[in-house]
Request: fold
Amino acid sequence: MSPLLLGHMIDSHKVQKLLYAALEEQKAFLVDFQISPGNVIQVLVDTLEGISLEGITAISRGIEHNLDREEADFELQVSSPGVGSPLQVREQYLQNIGRDLKVKMEDGSKHEGELIAFEDDQLSLQWSERVPKEVGKGKVTVKKDVKLNLQEIKEARVQVRFN
Reply:
């Protein structure tokens, strides 16, 4: 390979155009995209149902087969977010309704509970808590909930439970 090829930066606009066409074809959404030095293209994708290996392969081919390695050499990595990765885009909140989340807010507060709804950039978490009875001794279990604005969330992760 000629040293000239190694110095060429890959055309990020072309890569993005190919990526969005492939995402649309697979009915998938983009979680993250970057091109690192050395033309390493990293793409994180998913679908609301959870993307299949076939879907990832199709997106990878949609990009790779339309780029010319003679123009600029590159490495392409297409994958889905790992279990326990922070949620990065709105679609991931929709995808995880019914799952337990651990949320850190910009103000330092923390919340943990089941994601029961996500709309208008607001998520609703619900959890059970033991509280003292209003009358008499002992405790009673009550459902608590909180609404959180997406813009105020520093990090949200799905809590993986092994039963």
